[in-house]
Amino acid sequence: MFWTMNQMVEELNPRIQGWRNYYALDSFANKFLNKIDWYIRKRLTLFWNKKLYRRKKHHKFGLVGIMAQKSGLKKLVV
User: Is the pTM of this model over 0.90?
Assistant: First the structure.
């Protein structure tokens, strides 16, 4: 059984919010948090492309990020 994008976002948002609450106190954490945001979007792209049986696993990286954002995915850096 595959998860939908909305289900993935619902699972990720509490964890992302926790990381943001913990690391937002440090003013130097933005560089680190940007890398984590990139990694989350990258893993969602790999998940989505595998779900749709696409040959190119990094196909439409930006489109999947937009879909996740419209589903309500939170970001670590505001």
Answer: no
pLDDT 10s digit of each residue in the chain, 78 long? 577 888 888 998 999 999 888 887 777 888 888 898 889 888 888 887 777 666 665 566 667 777 777 888 888 887
- Is 16 part of a structural domain of the chain? yes
Determine, yes or no, domain membership for 75.
no
Cβ neighbours around 68 below 10 Å, total = 22
Q: Structural domain of residue 58, as residue ranges?
A: 5-70
Amino acid at 76: L
| Residue 77 maps to a domain | no
Contact yes or no for 74/20 (Cβ under 8 A):
yes
The first and second tokens of residue 35, run together, are 């890398």
